[in-house]
């Protein structure tokens, strides 16, 4: 074993590797779950308001605001991910395209 790798370091590296192998899920699935949670929190809020349970109304309002914030963030990340994929595709197409000669001499040849 190299000098800078101790048994503790090796265990830590193994734990990191295991964490990286886990499925990270997908944004679309998380978005759907958050939307369902938001609908549920709103239903609880309406039912609590109808029954006059003020404490439960406040808890449901808090859950609704937290879920809404998380939902908005996931939508934003999804949009950024789509824009990044489009930029990467455009960059890849540009990288594989033949170079364009923009020198003044070539411009005069076409004039």
TrEMBL record:
Region (Disordered): 1-25, 91-111
Record field: compositional bias (Basic residues): 12-22
Domain of life: Bacteria
Name of the featured protein: Uncharacterized protein
């Amino acid at each position: 074993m190299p000098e800078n790798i101790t048994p503790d370091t090796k265990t830590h590296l193994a734990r990191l590797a295991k964490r990286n192998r886990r499925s990270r899920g997908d944004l679309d699935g998380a978005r759907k779950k958050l939307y369902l949670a938001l609908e549920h929190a709103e239903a609880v809020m309406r039912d609590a308001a109808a029954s006059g349970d003020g404490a439960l109304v406040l808890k449901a309002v808090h859950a609704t605001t937290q879920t809404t914030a998380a939902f908005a963030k996931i939508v934003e990340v999804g949009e950024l991910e789509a824009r990044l994929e489009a930029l990467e595709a455009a960059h890849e197409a540009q990288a594989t395209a033949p170079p364009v000669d923009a020198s003044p001499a070539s411009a005069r040849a076409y004039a």
